[in-house]
Design a protein that fits this description.
The complex is a heterodimer. Chain A is α+β, with helices and mostly antiparallel strands. Helix content of chain A is about 30%, strand content about 25%. In chain B, strand 1 and strand 2 form a beta hairpin. The chains are: A alpha+beta, B alpha+beta.
Chain lengths: ~775, ~170
């Protein structure tokens, strides 16, 4: 490497390159794609959570005006099943057809598809499809699903057990024998509905043997691969485009039935086909998240030292395994449960269960919010039990800064970390010391005030392909990037990552700009189109894009930079070692007048008549990058709540967070990711819950019954950061997409329980709705304002 | 059977045949191709479809197209004038008040209406004003900053006119 890259734009609050089109209505989302001759799909979905399909009569539907075709699962059998990309040991995989043929296994399972000339005609005709169902006994609760005699969701299996996933380290039995204190908790991490603001949609056209599919996806390359394989097309004849994607949070990290259905229909009908999800339909047919019930036991000494942790969890997987589902409660959850603490003994057994509910997969944080909830609630229970400040219990158990790289009891290697400073800065921001005075003031008002801490560590940057493979992940953990400099000096960065709000166009341009000595405005970042991608891309999820995809943009830019230096030195008749790449120029160090413009260099690369001996013409680089390890962002979040003593309403009055995502490429974007993530975590703690009745009907079936937080439900956030660079990659970046969601839920929960602790309340399950809190206060004999 | 309505959309008067059941958002998106207005739910909760109808922020999924006969409708595509962005649009970009951008058109419109009626709002008034617009990405923090910042921009540029006419 010659002269080091300067960091002019890395770390700067560069305005977003995405914004001009999005604030003027120019952005193209999937449902905005309208093509001549287009037909529309409406799906017939089972109203029963579990029912055998005796007969489907499509005659009346076919006769409805405007109907083009009616499909049942039989016609789609040849397209094959939906994919599952992760296989964990002892897993009983489910066969998941795009349209079910034998049974409906959850309310919302697709049983037929209707194609018509208009959306309305398709909906009307879908209502005219008659399905003769034989309702079967239903199981909704995952623990009950594992009991003998439970209704079996997949009859070819003997039980609903998807997997048993044990992870052990140290001698837990001894830890509990030696303990002064043991605390025990049953934690319900309730089911959530992701609610990306853009409903899912898919549009397909088939022309000249080539299928183009626009889809609301986080993983266009995986969709391309599966659509090609399942529809019998050569992969080079399937173009998947993820245009603007209106949020995902894991819910678009799938290959969904509808993508295969519109692809199949476009191919067989020869007309463009569109399907757009309605919100209520999405509540049934788009994946849900979380849904764990955990029994947690913590063994400790009286001085707060943790000796051991034992956890038994049942994860509700829903009716079918989705693409990444087996990895969420296992790989992304169990290993990181020990969190920021030195825990000498660990025994975790996770079991997954099929139920007659919507499939569960990744939702922002995906397993890690559940981890933080387990350990951070347990630590607060311990603090309460031994009468110690919860901040002090955390300090006493943190992995010390000089212990990194640190091998955790669960088998991970944290490359770096420094947890105490983040805690102390968050405590200072939250005026933790002054809290008891505020609690007393609230009490005088008849209210209960509480403060809650959560010090999380998460695992992201997925990740080394070999580690993935050892864990059962059936895909590589790399990303791909290509930088193409045109003869005029115009620069395009192509990335395999696929943003849907994460601002990659801006951040990736900042990274490339610094390496190439130009500005982010000189660089166009292109993504989400498999026909112009650098190669195979993996996609955007698990806070991986920067730590994997951003690094290869950096590496590709360094390669181009090296060639720019070589050409510049050749043209300037100077040594490459003396070259500076800066301000759109290449010049000799100390002699800025002896310079070539960036465009002169690129033109020379393509004229190719005066290049260094043996150099290939052209100016571009393609990089595949496979990271050597995961990354481990961390931080401390502190929530302060005041509970109305009369109504039980919880008001979140203060929120402070100090996070460490390593080097920040654009602090403005980092803060935005935190604000949104924190709000989603607050949503789980205070407002959100997917609720089924015993018949498997989703009672929280629309935005009227499921409360997505509004602007009035959350406060302004106080943010700070520390910067501990990861040693895993050359930029020291770790990832920030999910940190807010992981840190916030336990902080709010701990604050609510802290507020109620004077009443002797030790635990309540989320969400802390006014009714639930009011009942708890009443039962505990709270005084309130009465 | 269709019914002819005349409606001014983003300054252009148009006469269109609409079905009696057609929603305003369907007229905008499907008939006129104004796809900047989005549909995010089916229960009038999310506010992604908010447009100005005679100056008032209105969820276009909750009003029939025929009800806008004779009205003036402004969508996100009509906020910029003569190539110059509305201060609310500028503020949303400068304050990083959008991420995926799906809810943004509705929020911009809501903010424009709100600031027309309350040019110097407090933060809690801003939060109340936008509570009918859901955003899953930003946690609202920067949206509140953007609306406040737009209010400041708009009052600063408006002030000289006022000051010229009023002796203090």
């Amino acid at each position: 490497m010659t002269a080091a890259t300067t960091t002019t734009y890395i770390g700067a609050r560069v305005p977003r390159k995405e914004d001009p089109r999005l604030i003027t209505g120019d952005g193209l989302f999937t449902d905005d794609v309208t093509l001549p001759g287009m037909v529309y799909v409406s799906l017939v979905r089972s109203p029963h959570a579990h029912a055998r399909i005796r007969r489907i009569d499509t005659t009346a539907a076919t006769e409805e005006p405007g109907v083009v075709a009616v499909l049942t699962g039989k016609e789609l059998e040849a397209t094959g099943a939906l994919p599952v990309f992760i296989t964990v040991p002892s897993m009983n995989g489910s066969k998941h057809m795009p349209i079910t043929t034998d049974k409906a296994r959850y309310a919302g399972d697709a049983v037929a598809a209707v194609v018509a000339e208009s959306r309305d005609a398709a909906k009307r005709a879908a209502d005219a499809v008659t399905v003769d169902y034989e309702p079967l006994p239903v199981v909704v609760d995952a623990t009950k699903a594992l009991e003998p005699g439970a209704p079996i969701v997949h009859e070819e299996m003997k039980s609903n057990l998807v997997f048993t996933y044990p992870v052990k380290g140290g001698d837990v039995d001894k830890a509990f024998r030696d303990a002064d204190v043991k605390v025990k908790l049953r934690l319900v991490n309730q089911r959530l509905i992701p609610n990306a603001m853009e409903p899912r949609a898919a549009v397909a056209k088939f022309e000249a043997g080539e299928l183009t599919l626009w889809s609301t996806t986080q993983i266009p390359h995986f969709v391309q691969l599966i659509v090609a394989l399942n529809l019998g097309l050569s992969q080079n004849k399937v173009r998947v485009i993820a245009p603007e994607v209106g949020g995902g949070f894991g819910s678009k990290l799938q290959v969904y039935a509808e993508e295969l259905i519109v692809g199949h229909l476009a191919k067989t009908l020869g007309r463009p086909v569109k399907w757009t999800e309605e919100r209520r339909e999405g509540y049934l047919a788009t994946i849900h998240g979380r849904d764990h019930v955990s029994d947690v036991e913590l063994a400790a000494k009286r001085d707060g030292t943790i000796l051991g942790l034992r956890v038994r969890t049942v994860a509700n997987m829903g009716a079918y395994l989705q693409a990444f589902a087996p990895g969420i409660p296992t790989i992304l959850h169990v290993f990181v449960v020990p969190g920021a603490y030195r825990i000498p003994a660990f025994d975790y057994e996770m079991r997954g269960a099929y139920t007659n509910t919507t499939p569960v997969d990744a939702y922002r944080g995906a397993g890690r919010p559940e981890s933080a909830y387990v350990i951070e609630r347990a630590i607060d229970r311990l603090a309460d039990e031994i009468g110690m400040d919860p901040a002090e219990v955390r300090r006493r158990n943190f992995i010390p800064a000089d212990a990194f790289p640190f091998n955790t009891i669960s088998g991970l290697t944290y490359d770096s970390g420094d947890y105490a400073p983040a805690l102390e800065r968050a405590l200072a921001m939250a005026d933790y010391k002054g809290f008891e005075k505020r609690r007393a003031e609230a009490k005088a008002r008849g209210n209960y005030r509480g403060i809650g801490i959560s010090s999380y560590v998460e695992i992201c940057g997925l990740a080394p392909s070999k580690a993935n493979s050892a864990l059962g992940v059936g895909w590589g953990g790399y990303e791909s990037a290509r930088i193409r400099v045109h003869p005029t000096g115009a620069v395009q960065v192509f990335t395999g990552t696929s943003p849907h709000g994460q601002s990659h166009e801006t951040s990736w341009a900042q990274i490339a700009a610094d390496a190439l000595g130009i500005t982010p405005n000189d660089i166009e970042v292109r993504h989400g189109d498999t026909f112009e991608s650098p190669g195979m891309g993996v996609g955007t999820f698990g806070s991986r894009s920067l730590a994997v995809g951003g690094i290869e943009v950096h590496k590709a830019a360094e390669k181009v930079r090296e060639k720019v230096i070589q050409i510049g030195a050749h043209l300037l008749e100077a040594s490459p070692d003396d070259m500076v790449v800066e301000g759109g120029k290449v010049f000799v160090k100390g002699v800025p007048d002896k310079a070539k413009n960036f465009g002169d260099i690129s033109m020379a690369a393509y004229l190719a008549n005066n290049l260094p001996e043996g150099m290939e013409p052209g100016l571009e680089a393609t990089v595949y990058y496979d990271p050597p390890n995961f990354t481990f962002p961390f931080g401390t979040h502190i929530a302060e709540v005041e509970i109305d003593g009369e109504t039980g309403a919880v008001e979140l009055v203060n929120y402070s967070a100090c996070d460490d995502c390593g080097r920040q490429i654009n602090p403005m974007i980092v803060e935005g990711q935190l604000h949104g993530g924190i709000t989603q975590g607050i949503g789980q703690a205070l407002y959100e819950a997917a609720i089924y009745d015993d018949n498997g009907q989703l009672l929280s079936g629309s935005m009227m019954e499921y409360h997505v937080p509004t602007a009035e439900n959350v406060p302004a956030f106080k943010l700070d950061h520390t910067m501990t660079l990861t040693t895993t990659n050359p930029l020291g970046v770790k990832g920030i997409g999910e940190a807010g969601t992981i840190g916030s839920t336990p902080a709010v929960a701990n604050a609510v329980i802290d507020a109620l602790s004077p009443l002797g309340i030790k635990h309540l399950d989320m969400p802390f709705t006014p009714e639930k809190v009011w009942r708890a206060i009443e039962t505990a004999g709270g005084e309130g304002r009465r | 059977m269709g019914q002819a309505i005349t409606v001014t959309i983003n300054g252009a008067k148009q006469t269109k045949d609409v079905e009696p059941t057609q929603l305003l958002v369907e007229l905008l998106r499907d008939t006129l191709g104004l796809t900047g207005t989005h549909v995010g739910c089916d229960t009038s909760q999310c506010g992604a479809c908010t447009v100005l109808v005679d100056g008032r922020a209105t969820k276009s999924c909750t009003i029939l197209a025929v009800q806008t006969d004779g009205a003036e409708v402004v969508t996100v595509e009509g906020l910029a004038k003569n190539g110059e962005l509305h201060p609310v649009q500028r503020a949303f970009a400068s304050e990083h008040a959008l991420q995926c951008g799906f809810c943004t058109p509705g929020l911009l419109i809501t903010a424009v209406d709100f600031l027309a009626r309350n040019p110097t709002p407090t933060d809690s008034e801003i939060r109340h004003a936008i509570e009918g617009n859901l955003c899953r990405c930003t946690g609202y923090h920067n949206i509140v900053n953007a609306v406040r910042s737009a209010a400041e921009m708009m009052t600063t540029t408006a002030q000289p006119k006022v000051a010229a006419g009023v002796k203090r």
